[in-house]
Amino acid sequence: MRNPYVYLNNFRAVFTPRKPRNPLLRLGLGLLGLVILAGLLVVGLFVGAAMLLAGLAMKLLAPRRAAARSSRSSHHDSTVVDAQYTVVSRQAIDAPR
Q1: Residue 47 falls within a domain, yes or no?
Q2: Which of 3, 33, 38, 96 has the fewest other C-beta atoms within 10 Å?
Q3: Does the global pTM surpass 0.90?
Q4: Cβ atoms 29, 20 nearer than 8 A
Q5: 26 contacts: CB under 8 Å, gap ≥ 6
Q6: At residue 1, does pLDDT exceed 70?
């Protein structure tokens, strides 16, 4: 009877990362990995800086847009409820009825 785990182990061995035996190739692949890592770091920094600049630009331009909208529209907003309120003291709230 054949053991299926033996075949799985052989299949898994195909995809295990192994270091090359040649020292120059090992050094070259190590340097290539460092270059890729540094490149990803630089790209991430540029993307982060671009996101910060875009957020700052949106924040700086937003009040101007809101002021332009309010000056253009002279009619009242239908979502605003106009009312008069009376401040009630704490004693009036706690008093028995």
Answers
A1: yes
A2: 96
A3: no
A4: yes
A5: 19, 20
A6: no
